[in-house]
Amino acid sequence: KLIDLWIQLSEELKQYPNDKLAYEILNEAVAENPDDWNKLFNKVLADIRLREPNRVVVIGSNRWQIPSTFTDLKIPEGDTNIILSFHFYTPNTLTHHLAPWTETYEYKGPVNYPGWIVDTNNYKDLSEKTVAAMRRYANGYFDKDVLEKEMMPAIEVAKKYNLQLFCGEYGIFPSISEDLSLKWYKDVCEIFNKHHIAYCHWAYKGDFPVIKENNIPNYNLIKVLTAN
Hints:
Elements: H1 2-13, E1 23-24, H2 34-51, E2 57-60, H3 62-65, E3 82-88, H4 92-95, E4 115-116, H5 128-136, E5 141-142, H6 144-161, E6 164-170, H7 178-194, E7 198-199, H8 219-225
Parallel strand pairs: 1-2, 2-3, 3-6, 6-7
Antiparallel strand pairs: 4-5
Helix pairs in contact: 1-2, 7-8
């Protein structure tokens, strides 16, 4: 079904220049076995190449495109028209604090960055399920060096294949102070620029906004996002 979908998309979109349009095969694939994702995207890519050998194709890693799963990727040798993509929301207990769809939503206490994201003394009134989620979703000590190490598997795989690396999503849910948020954004963007990683903020409006509800741009955030 996915191959058939891309056949249809290619027929419609192949009219657009390769330097204006790229394809991303699937956003945030999640497979129990990483080889399932490798087999699937390689099948789709091979079919796209029959029709569009020079089209740029974006490929992310398994399990929501987190950097740590990049070592499992099996990229076809010699295909230079590929961009490797990861998403970055580490640590989740900071970037998704008070986000209502998360498993850590019960925690309403303070968060911090850089340093220990949440003081574990604040766990005492939480349910066991939430405490387990807090521990699982990257609560601990985080600073710029730690964030860079988290990205390194993606950086090293991109270097191995000599391919452009792209962070297709990153951002912070706007529930924490702007001062705290901007510290994380500044560190993340500096890491991107250091390693020549292209990047795109999630999102424009909505849950992770650059434009606020009153349609006024967040100029402090924009300044950090566009610095180089």
